[in-house]
Amino acid sequence: MTGRRAAAQSLPIMAQPLAQDLPPPTRHVFGPITVILGHKSGKYPDANMMVVTGRDSRAAVDAPLCSNRVGADFDGCDLVILSHVHEDHMAGLHRLPQAAVAVHRLDWPAAASWEGYRDALGLSEAVWPAMRKKLAAEFAFTPRADAAPYEDGHVFDLGGVRLTAMLLPGHTAGHCALIEETQGLAFIADIDLSGFGPYYGDATSSLQDFRSSLERLESLDARTIVTGHHRGIYTDRARFLADLKAYRDKLDARDDKLLAMLADGPRSMASLVAERLIYPPDYEELWVEDVERRTIEQHLAALAAEGRVVAENGLWSRA
Ligand SMILES: [Zn+2]
Description:
Layout: H1 2-9, H2 15-18, E1 26-30, E2 33-37, H3 39-42, E3 49-53, E4 58-61, H4 72-75, E5 79-81, E6 100-104, H5 108-112, H6 114-121, H7 128-139, E7 148-150, E8 155-157, E9 162-167, E10 176-180, E11 185-189, H8 207-218, E12 224-227, E13 233-234, H9 237-261, E14 267-268, H10 269-275, H11 288-305, E15 309-312, E16 315-318
Parallel strand pairs: 4-5, 5-6, 6-7, 11-12
Antiparallel strand pairs: 1-2, 2-3, 3-4, 8-9, 9-10, 10-11, 12-13, 14-16, 15-16
Helix pairs in contact: 8-9, 10-11
Residues 84, 86, 171, 190 line the site of zinc ion (ZN).
């Protein structure tokens, strides 16, 4: 523990992880649950989170950048339950070296070591060194080999308050919602219903699993739904279902866009990646090419299975 604390304290003081110049994040209280919205409604690199207080334990659900500005409510947590392993949900973990950390078994390797996170992201060797530097500097990313793996359906009993994990994979292999029954509140993390649409560009991501998770969410019985980014808090079921549908429709829109990209004849993967399916042409980040490639590959595989595209001599074309 002391080694980790020392490591955390020796990190250079970066403006972004602490972001002390920003106002304290907005809070919404639902009984024992405080929903905390990140900067710009939890837009990346920030995210939304919750602090849940029971008789015996206080747990944070995720620890995004804004957790650095929450104060005692977060700093007094003895447990951090990660909805999944991504840097934008872990940028306050370095504050709590003594707290227990829980993460779904399938995301555990990514939380436990730098190599595990690199492999889960599936970034090419060319960009990993720069990405690792960015993760440390901007997110204070600190591997937690002491994290306890949890399973689908696991119940975290905080004393009179229980959080149940519901595995909703696709975004990452171990991506989970956390559900509190007395309030009927579900934190659905990075099924964020944002205008960008679903993200499944990591090595452990899956387009097919994401589709199934979206179907399962439709029948989720919850009065309040909290997303990890952007949308924040839903208490209007009709609005939630409309946004869920628009979000799911993005998947079909990406199929259509890809088919349009193949309209003028066969294309190589490299040329499709260069044109881009999900990111705007002027958006530059270290991961863009790897993520575009993996996203396009998954759509092409699904379209090929439906007989709508074929691959020949390394070129893709419409069937
Ligand atoms: Zn994520």
